[in-house]
Specification:
Elements (H helix, E strand, L loop, with lengths): L9 E6 L4 E8 L7 E4 L7 E2 L7 E6 L5 E5 L13 H10 L9 E5 L17 H7 L5 H14 L5 H6 L6 H14 L4 H8 L4 H10 L1 H6 L2 H8 L7 H10 L5 H14 L4 H11 L3 H11 L8 H13 L5 H10 L5 H18 L3 E3 L4 H6 L5 H12 L1 E3 L14 H17 L1 H4 L17 H4 L2 H10 L16 H12 L11 H10 L9 H5 L3
Parallel strand pairs: 8-9
Antiparallel strand pairs: 1-2, 2-3, 2-4, 5-6, 6-7
Helix pairs in contact: 2-3, 3-5, 5-7, 6-9, 7-10, 10-12, 11-12, 12-14, 13-14, 14-16, 15-16, 16-18, 19-23, 22-24, 23-24
Length: 520
């Protein structure tokens, strides 16, 4: 609040790899998606030619200025990700030293003085309530925290009065403070749910969830009135809150939200999961309404099909495949249906089952359109029907030691590998490949262990992580991924890792595909 008014809509972002702090002007109309543009055309807010300038964090300070934390290091990568090339450059430029010179910059504006020093812990609760209207966010959030920590419910009346304040930030603080004190009542919620600010209405939906779960009729009615709300944040929170609706009201509320129009992926997934076992009925309503052009409904169509694929019941799969086979429907809609079913079956790790051979689907798998053919082939691979032999999978029984190793590997994978390969093993576009059905994961341990120890070249580099992990930890991780997500390979023990580590000692380069193919 000690900066010029023109900077109040700015967001500042640290970028340690680029030696800079960027400034962006945020446009956020009431309830609409936020957008941002660079504040300066030819430079950034704070930059340095010193390659050791590494801004890693910043904060709005109580004195009205901004503090920037500079780690001040030549090297910022974890050693796991330092390739031979980077190591050469580090030594060439002397980047490994010095260390211990981090600093905090206080960024001031020439014409503004320093604000008063805080002492909020010593003031009365009445003064804390007044501080919720302070122009500086640090003061507001600190006052809110102290009010909640004091459990001072006497201030509830003054907090409710703030729900009529002109600034919606103040109304937000008042609402969340009342919630933190446990004194929100239906009357308060009805005021907040009818607020002119989408931010306040969104927060009110979250705060109202306990009343939703209890089936409070007045609160349910007020929330129902928000279903046509044009603000994305409100409708997305409505979708998230569906799961706490009473079961007797949930499906009707989900359908009402779908009828009002759900276009973003997040809301679509939330609504689909809230429909639960009645997803096929919700999808049928949509199919009756949208026959030729899926348009903006594609996210919902795919999400509902995925929900059906996760837990197919009765003839649900046949009904979805009938829509897929309907040539009067747009290709985009049919692809959304196939993609959703495939995703749901993959996540549930159980094949879809049909009474008869899906000839129309198999015909689509031979289509000239590669997008259609690929979607149909993937769905066919996840589907069983009468006469189609189930894939024969013979898995030997695990020993007690292997069961324990795989359990340990699950935990290790979450801490070490999931950031790139994701918890579901599906990988991250442009970062890490999927481990589900991977040839290397299900193939020879000698190849897989080498990849982990020294890395693998290719479109997405697998960094060498062997130096940071013991033989036992590597064995546990690899044993886990070889028996997870439908993978059907035998576990790996620490002795195998130790043997290959010894055989490849001294190797500094990542393995190529050609080199791995020659490994036996």
């Amino acid at each position: 609040d000690r900066y010029p008014a023109a900077m109040r809509r700015s967001v500042f972002v640290t970028e340690s790899a680029g030696n800079l702090v960027g400034q962006f002007i945020v446009e956020n109309a009431n309830g609409a998606p936020s957008s941002a543009r660079r504040a300066l055309d030819s430079t950034d807010f704070l930059t340095s030619t010193d390659e050791r300038f590494r801004p890693v964090n910043l904060a709005s300070a109580p004195d009205g200025t901004m503090y920037v934390v500079d780690m001040y290091r030549g090297i910022i990568q974890h050693r796991t990700y330092i390739t031979d090339y980077l190591e050469e450059k580090i030594r060439e430029r002397g980047l490994e030293q010095p260390v211990g010179f981090g600093r905090i910059y206080r960024v001031v504006y020439d014409s503004s003085g320093r604000g008063p020093a805080p002492g909020l812990s010593a003031v009365s609760s009445t003064q804390l309530v007044s501080t919720l209207a302070h122009p500086n966010g640090w003061w507001r959030t600190t006052a809110q925290r102290l009010l909640v920590e004091r459990h001072d419910t006497v201030s509830a009346q003054a907090l409710r009065a703030l729900l009529g304040h002109a600034d919606d930030r103040v109304r937000l603080h008042a609402l969340w403070t009342l919630d933190g004190l446990g004194v929100v009542d239906p009357a308060t919620l009805l005021v907040a749910l009818d607020d002119g600010s989408a931010h306040v209405r969104t927060a009110a939906l979250r705060v109202a969830e306990p009343y939703l779960a209890r089936g409070d009729t007045a609160v349910l009615s007020a929330i129902g009135a928000l279903i046509p709300d044009s603000a994305l944040s409100v409708r997305r929170q409505l979708a998230a809150s569906l799961v706490v609706f009473p079961e007797t009201e949930r499906f009707a509320a989900a359908n009402a939200l779908l009828d009002a129009g759900v276009t973003d992926v997040v809301s679509a997934e939330l609504v689909a999961r809230a429909t639960g076992p009645r997803a096929v009925a919700a999808l049928a309503r949509m199919m009756a309404r949208v026959t030729t052009d899926v348009g903006s409904d594609s996210a919902v169509v795919e999400a509902l099909a995925a929900q059906i694929g996760r837990a197919p019941r009765g003839t649900a799969v046949e009904r979805v495949l009938a829509w897929v086979s309907d040539g009067s429907r747009s290709l985009s809609q049919r692809i959304a249906l196939m993609t959703g079913l495939t995703r749901g079956a993959t996540e549930s790790r159980a094949p879809l089952k049909m009474a008869t051979r899906p000839d129309a689907l198999l015909a689509m798998a031979r289509a000239r359109d590669t997008v259609v053919a690929t979607a149909a082939r993937r769905l066919a691979q996840q589907t069983l029907w009468a006469g189609k032999p189930a894939p024969e999978v013979t898995l030997r029984a695990l020993t007690a030691a292997e069961v324990a190793r795989i359990a340990a590997g699950r935990d290790e994978f979450g801490k070490t590998c999931a950031v790139c390969h994701q918890l579901d093993g599906a990988g991250l576009a442009g970062v890490a490949k999927s481990l589900v059905g991977s040839t290397y994961v299900n193939g020879a341990p000698s190849q897989l262990i080498r990849i982990v120890l020294q890395g693998k070249e290719g479109a997405m580099l697998m960094p060498p992580i062997g130096a940071t992990l013991t033989d036992e930890r590597i064995a546990s991780i690899l044993s886990f991924v070889r028996r997870e997500w439908g993978n059907r390979a035998d576990p790996i023990d620490a002795a195998a890792v130790k043997e290959i580590r010894g055989a490849t000692t001294g190797r500094k380069r990542a393995w190529t595909v050609e080199e791995l193919a020659r490994v036996r």
